[in-house]
Design a protein that fits this description.
heterodimer, B: 76% helix
């Protein structure tokens, strides 16, 4: 295609201007996290200036106060286990439902039943679930993971069984003729083919779980276990008026996801678009 | 025999997973409905009260106020977010340099946790913006907007929008990429440029993406919680209590377990109604094309 590469400079200028609404809050967050309380004045230069020294003392203190490594480990554990279980359980359920829902009343009912779970807001489940998990001895990180696996099931099953339409039945039939069981055929043939959808599901599930506050707040309240966002909530009062300490802690809790974003930006953008559009 | 093996395997997969779903989604939902007919406080004994909670719900000023606030926030934020996202998407899809850098940067707010973003903006609204405003000489903004019952919702809207714009922009961009170049070329011959081109060519072609964004926005903003928790905790003077926040706050620790269960049941029906209505509306729009 012969196309003149005309840059639209007006759009460029507006985009750069718009970017400041994202860069400015992030800049302030970083600067405040490094400053000392004595550097926080109400003048414009006091707000915008760089810290006098780039000392890590705020971060060390914030790590100590919020028990950072403990919360980070919990967040990582919950997110990774949820993603692995979601990929394994939701994909095979999506397969079982997707392959059988046409022409079978039971499977098409189960499919609609689970997918319509998307409309159930957490607000209505929250109180009964707090009771139920406590009764079942699941008011802990494992209970939170189980709940995530259930909460993201409707969306992920929709995605997986939608993707399955593109995979021809002939593949499975060929394997069956060779004598492979359905179970084996799934893990050996279908599961690897669904790889692009695994990436989408992993990204969507990981982002939602990592940033979720409500589920751990309701389920693990009172236990000593914190996730990263929950730690910010629970230690908010301990920061008092030391905003520099608070900001160091906020920044620390944002760093893992920022690193993840820088590394997997393309996969994340693709995953989010795929998830929303399907 | 082969057919049987397949049938049994599928049943062995479906039934345990279905049981898990029923256990942690359907049963709590039913329990929530049952609690809504009781005067349960969250502990101890309770009695059946019939429809009392539901009758009280409609005369409760605090609940009414939270519905008004939540809908106002959801509608205004949805409009603001979609207008800005669409403009951004058009710019990001246009002839610009460093496209992937801009796209990556504009998506950034969406991956950050809403609670922490809320805390950061809370500080900005409380200290930095008033300081900047009084320096520039805008008296009306020299106090924190979060401490004003009439203006606090604007702060919440800004934070919600800041994160949601990123998401909606990406969806609009993927919509714009489905519009083939020759549509513009053909339209150009007929004199469709600028606003006309957008109104009669681009927008009708991306209506499916517009509906996705509408559904996503309205549903997410109706369920707003983290931002409230971080910015206002429902204050000042209960002016920013979202429905989810009220259910959490009064139901979990305020001794209104039964009453807020009734509220949650109504909220659930509202969400279902709004979502179904939106889908009906947008699918009828798409058929016209």
């Amino acid at each position: 295609m012969i196309e003149k590469k005309n840059t639209n400079w007006l759009a460029m200028a507006l985009l750069i201007l718009g970017l400041s609404t994202i860069a400015f809050p992030l800049y302030l967050t970083i600067v405040i996290a490094f400053k000392q309380p004595s550097e926080m004045t109400n003048s414009i230069s006091g707000i915008l200036s760089l810290p006098k020294t780039w000392s890590l003392s705020n971060f060390r203190e914030a790590m100590r106060v919020t028990n950072f490594w403990h919360s980070l480990a919990n967040s990582l554990l919950i997110t990774i286990v949820t993603v692995v279980l979601s990929i394994a359980i939701h994909s095979i359920m999506g397969y079982a439902l997707g392959r059988n829902k046409a022409g079978n009343k039971f499977y098409s009912f189960v499919y609609l039943f689970i997918v319509s779970g998307m409309f159930v807001p957490f607000a209505i489940l929250m109180m009964p679930l707090a009771k139920q998990t406590a009764e079942m001895g699941l008011a802990n990180w494992f209970g939170v993971i189980l709940l995530y696996v259930v909460f993201y099931m409707p969306m992920n099953i929709l995605l997986y069984s939608g993707y399955l339409v593109n995979i021809p039945m002939a593949l499975e039939e060929a394997a069956r003729v060779d004598g492979a069981s359905t179970w084996r055929t799934y893990w050996k043939i279908i599961f690897p083919i669904m790889k692009p959808m695994h990436a989408t599901v992993a990204v969507l599930t990981a982002l939602s779980v990592w940033n979720d506050v409500m589920t751990p707040l309701v389920i693990m309240a009172g236990s000593e276990t914190n996730t990263l966002p929950l730690a910010q909530l629970n230690f908010q009062s301990q920061f008092g008026t030391n905003y520099n300490l608070a900001f160091a802690s906020y920044l620390l809790s944002l760093i893992p996801i920022l690193i993840f974003y820088v590394i997997c930006q393309k996969q994340i953008l693709n995953g989010v678009v795929n998830g929303a559009v399907k | 025999m082969m057919k049987n093996e397949r049938k049994i395997t599928f049943l062995c997969i479906t039934i345990p997973i279905l049981a898990l779903f029923v256990c942690f989604n359907t049963i709590p939902l039913i329990r929530g409905v049952i609690y809504s007919f009781t005067n349960f406080k969250g502990f101890g004994k309770y009695d059946w009260v019939g429809m009392r909670n539901y009758i009280d719900l409609f005369s409760d000023a605090r609940v009414g106020k939270s519905y008004l606030f939540t809908f106002k926030l959801a509608i205004v934020t949805t409009i603001v977010v979609n207008v800005i996202s669409l403009l951004l998407a058009l710019a990001l899809n246009g002839k610009i340099r460093a496209k992937s850098f801009f796209r990556g940067a504009y998506f950034l707010p969406n991956i950050l946790g809403a609670l922490v973003v809320g805390y950061i903006f809370n500080y900005f609204f409380t200290y930095i913006f008033p300081a900047l405003a009084s320096m520039v000489g805008i008296e009306s903004l020299s106090t924190s907007i979060l401490s004003s019952p009439s203006k606090a919702w604007i702060g919440i809207m800004v934070v919600c929008a800041w994160q949601a714009i990123a998401m909606n922009t990406i969806i609009y961009i993927s919509g714009l990429q489905t519009v083939p170049e020759d549509v513009y070329e053909a339209g150009g011959l007929d004199g469709a440029t600028g606003w006309k081109q957008f109104r009669y060519l681009t927008f009708p072609l991306i209506i499916p993406f517009f509906s996705i964004n509408m559904v996503l926005c309205v549903k997410n903003f109706l369920m707003v919680f983290d931002q409230i928790m971080a910015l206002t905790k429902g204050g000042p003077a209960q002016s920013t209590e979202s429905i989810s926040y009220l259910i959490y706050n009064n139901g979990m620790s305020g001794g209104q377990f039964g009453f807020q269960s009734a509220n949650a049941v109504v909220f659930f029906l509202v969400i279902v109604f709004v979502s179904v209505a939106q889908m009906k509306f947008s699918s009828s729009k798409e058929e016209q094309l």
